[in-house]
Design goal:
Elements (H helix, E strand, L loop, with lengths): L1 E5 L6 H14 L5 E5 L3 H14 L5 E3 L3 H4 L21 H15 L1 E2 L1 H10 L4 H7 L6 E4 L2 H4 L6 H5 L4 E6 L4 H8 L2 E4 H8 L5 H19 L5 E4 L4 H19 L6 H19 L4 E6 L6 E6 L3 H7 L5 E6 L5 H7 L7 E4 L9 E6 L13 H14 L4 E5 L2 H14 L5 E3 L6 H13 L4 E5 L17 E5 L8 H12 L4 H18 L10 E6 L6 H4 L9 E3 L2 H21 L1
Parallel strand pairs: 1-11, 1-12, 2-5, 2-6, 3-4, 3-5, 6-11, 13-18, 13-19, 14-16, 14-17, 15-16, 17-18
Antiparallel strand pairs: 7-10, 8-9, 9-10
Helix pairs in contact: 1-2, 4-5, 5-6, 10-11, 10-13, 11-12, 12-13, 16-17, 16-22, 19-20
Length: 568
């Protein structure tokens, strides 16, 4: 049984799927629930939903090994032979730790870390040992779908497992990445610079030479082929053999070399899965020399994963057109599709389309000033917290700089190209803690998905452009692959992914019954049927021919809300 559900943002998708799933366990319709989320915030929401129900079910949260294992950031956890001390004697200390966790039942990240520290165990391996003993497993997509990370438990355990996939729309691109691999000259050089044995160094140099030979054969700086790089694969295999010998001989292996070996392992494994939906891309320029095995379409691989589960339910606020997601995610012909209308008062949201703006690449610089004017008029109509979304950093920077020059009295925040977790939190803190903030952010980025801007935290989203992915050679190959499947390649590779970004960005505004706000789409293409027919029906957008009419439409909306609120 397969089901995909589109439900509006803020409608309680997490608890609405977990509640019947837990009930199904009690009614003996399934034995275990596997809840997948692409983001840590989504996993935290799942934990909060389970806690809110105050049931006696047990749950387990699996944190990525790189983030959970102390040996990754504490050298004292590593012995003289490079082994993690928490793994030595692991199974001798496991029973006591497992007995304690049986009693705890609520196995979130902090509980696992605490118990692992108490019994000197690897927290990641401890979590894996608890898999068969809990009712709900909460983890990332890759533990089910990534061929190199997939947990064997899901394939071998005979129990009836129900798979719930949060923010299902993210799986399309994530899956392509899971079935792609790359090797670069920079990676090899970094491993070479580490302290390696003579055999390892020789194998690395041989691999570097093989990569150079493969790239020298190319006629263009960027070359595309349907053939695998046989010379490079042979050299990588020799490296793996030498590495295995050193590991077996208990020789010291540099951390950089071990990290590089993961890329080699993925490259070799993806080469074994290489099929008609893969292409080999070689990048010849010295500063970016790289060989990539690119997956264009992962639907066949995903299709092979679903039989591990008794039933599959994926959900998101953006799963239309449903036929696109059904195809791109490898779901069966009998997959059920459910699209739910918004349960929030439609009069609380005004959607406007500025059809006087053209953000196509060749035209967009000519419209920067009028985009800035539109943003200022939107803000002036009702000052508050707004986010302005763009699909490209460069264009966002241009508009932001021009806006700041034209309207210096209006405060702005700008999402930087390289934003670490600390910078992201600072951006959000400034946005939430102050009134009248105008944030410039990227569609599909950290601030466009997975954050709950309730109440007056965000009263408007301004979406500049239709969100199309950058027109790269890789994206064009994806388009061609869908064309070969007798599908509309432009829709599947560009238009539909762009609309998902647009709708996710717009969905930040209305998160609850009391929320009120506006969404403005600035691009004339939104009035074209190819885009307009895929916008939510309850949006019922107003088309504005110039900034003045846009401002008047918004002023009328805010005045109407003010009158209504005063009357109540």
């Amino acid at each position: 049984l397969q089901l995909i559900v589109e439900a509006p943002t803020g409608s309680g998708k997490t608890i609405s799927t977990l509640f019947p799933a837990i009930k199904a366990i009690g009614e003996d319709q399934c034995d275990q629930v596997i809840y997948l989320s692409a983001k840590v915030s989504g996993q935290q929401q799942a934990v909060a939903a389970v806690e809110l129900m105050k049931t006696d079910v047990s749950y387990l949260v699996i944190q990525a090994k790189a983030r959970s294992c102390p040996c990754n950031f504490d050298e004292d956890e590593i012995d003289d032979e490079g082994r993690c001390q928490r793994c030595l004697g692991f199974f001798e200390r496991l029973p006591a730790a497992r007995e304690k966790l049986f009693r705890q039942r609520k196995l979130d990240v902090s509980q696992l870390q605490q118990t692992a520290a108490e019994f000197r165990l690897c927290p990641f391996e401890l979590a894996l040992q608890m898999l068969p003993w809990v009712d709900i497993v909460i983890c990332d997509f890759n533990y089910v779908f990534d061929p190199l990370v997939q947990l064997g438990y899901f394939r071998t355990d005979p129990r009836r497992k129900l798979l719930l996939i949060d923010e299902l729309h993210n799986l399309v691109d994530r899956a392509r990445g899971m079935y792609s691999a790359s090797l670069s000259r920079a990676q090899i050089k970094k491993a070479l610079a580490a302290g390696n044995s003579r055999q390892i160094s020789t194998a690395l140099k041989s691999m570097q030479q093989a990569l150079d030979r493969e790239l020298r054969r190319l006629e263009e700086d960027e070359s595309i082929s349907s053939q695998m790089p046989a010379d490079l694969l042979r050299a990588s295999q020799r490296f793996s053999e030498k590495l295995g010998f050193d590991i077996f001989s208990n020789k010291h292996i540099a951390g950089e070399t071990l990290e590089f070996s993961k890329s080699i392992f993925r490259f070799q494994n993806i080469s074994q899965l290489y099929d008609i939906h893969h292409r080999t891309i070689g990048y010849k320029p010295l500063k970016q020399r790289e060989m990539k095995l690119l997956c264009l379409n992962a639907f066949e691989y995903l299709h092979q994963c679903y039989p591990m589960f008794h039933a599959v339910c994926g959900f998101s606020a953006t799963l239309t057109p449903t036929t696109y997601f059904q195809q791109a995610l490898g779901l069966g012909d009998d997959c059920k599709k459910l699209v739910l209308d918004s349960s929030f008062p439609v009069q609380n949201l005004r959607v406007c389309i500025g059809n006087y703006i053209d953000t196509r690449y060749r035209e967009r610089e000519n419209y920067i000033d009028i985009i800035c004017e539109s943003i200022e008029r939107i803000y002036r109509a009702h000052p508050g917290n707004y986010l302005v979304f763009f699909s490209a950093y460069t264009f966002m920077q241009q508009v932001h700089d021009r806006f700041s020059a034209l309207y210096p009295e209006t405060g702005t925040l700008l999402q930087q190209r390289e934003f670490d977790e600390s910078a992201q939190q600072q951006f959000l803190s400034q946005f939430f803690d102050a009134e009248g903030q105008l944030g410039f952010a990227i569609m599909g980025g950290r601030f466009a998905e997975g954050i709950d801007y309730r109440g007056d935290a965000l009263i408007g989203a301004i979406v500049v452009g239709v969100g199309l992915p950058q027109a790269s050679s890789e994206q064009q190959l994806i388009q061609q692959d869908f064309d070969a499947l007798q599908l509309d390649g432009f829709d599947y590779a560009f238009r539909f992914p762009g609309l998902v970004r647009v709708k996710q960005s717009a969905g930040r505004v209305i998160r609850g019954e009391q929320d009120q706000g506006i969404v403005v789409l600035l691009d004339r293409r939104f009035q074209q049927s190819g885009y307009a027919r895929h916008l939510p029906l309850h949006w019922n957008p107003a088309y504005c021919n110039h900034p003045e009419s846009l401002e008047q439409s918004l002023l009328a909306f805010w005045q109407n809300l003010e009158d209504k609120n005063a009357a109540n």
